[in-house]
Amino acid sequence: MNCTLSPSILAADFANLAEDIKRAEQAGIDCFHFDVMDGSFVPNISFGAPVIKALRSRSHAFFDVHMMVEEPGRYIEDMKNAGADSITVHQEACRHLDRTIHQIREAGLKAGVALNPATPVSTLDCILPMVDLVLIMSVNPGFGGQKLIPYTLDKIRTLRRESEEAGMDLTIGIDGGVNLQNLTSVLDAGADFIIAGSAVFQPNNKIEENVNAMRKLMGGRE
Ligand code: DX5
Ligand code: ZN
């Protein structure tokens, strides 16, 4: 299994984003997670396309954009032009999820669907063959630094089993509260795309050490 660590820049130093990204890249990171929040779908506002665009000029890494936004189909072109490589939308935020997923694919980007903790995996049965990534939210979205909700790991197990039974090569992401203490359980559950904000950027700002420690636990699965 090919396992990727995608640090969420929500937990980075907003006054030094380019520097924090550079430090993570020097520790071997080649993918970053951008949490776009609209203050409506989630009770918080973060940043939008201009910030992603500014960082695009500083990095060749894969930019994974997580849209915590109502009707994100409105912003696909903006995100593409800003330099997104993948766009993940919430099942709960799209009235016409099939259309939105097709819009992302037609824009030439990887398409992901995120599920809030209380949304069952079965809601994706019809759309699963059309997505590259399912992002299982392990916290209620809106804020970094929350605790992982344990039952969300059962959703990852279910999805991994079902996608394997269907012969699908699905990327399963986990987002929220992942840290050095729970990373092994998360990997064992079947996640292969690991989002981590606070665990990478916060403890003592030791970005390189934090990345190395997490990648060590992922060793052999990367
Ligand atoms: C939550 C975001 C997550 C979060 C991850 O709304 O989607 O990406 O910032 O941060 P940590 O790892 O601090 O939970
Ligand atoms: Zn996220």
Features:
222 residues, eight-stranded parallel beta sheet, globular, binds D-xylitol-5-phosphate, binds zinc ion
Can you tell me about this structure?
The protein is α/β, with parallel strands linked by helices and 222 residues long. It has a single domain (4-221), classed as Aldolase class I (TIM Barrel), CATH 3.20.20.70. It has eight helices and eight strands. The protein has an eight-stranded parallel beta sheet with strand order 1-8-7-6-5-4-3-2. Helix 2 (49-56) runs parallel beside helix 3. The N and C termini lie close together (7 Å). The model has no long low-confidence stretch (mean pLDDT 97). D-xylitol-5-phosphate (DX5) binds at residues 8, 10-11, 33, 35, 66, 139, 141-146, 175-178, 195-199. Zinc ion (ZN) binds next to strand 2.
Ligands bound, unique: D-xylitol-5-phosphate, zinc ion
Radius of gyration: 16 Å
- The number of distinct β-strands equals 8
- What is the CATH T-level topology? TIM Barrel
Measured by DSSP, the beta-strand proportion falls in: 15-25%
What gap, in angstroms, lies between the N and C termini? Answer: 7 Å
Rough shape? Answer: globular
Estimate percent helicity: 25-40%
Could you say which structural class the secondary elements and strand pairing correspond to? alpha/beta
CATH architecture: Alpha-Beta Barrel
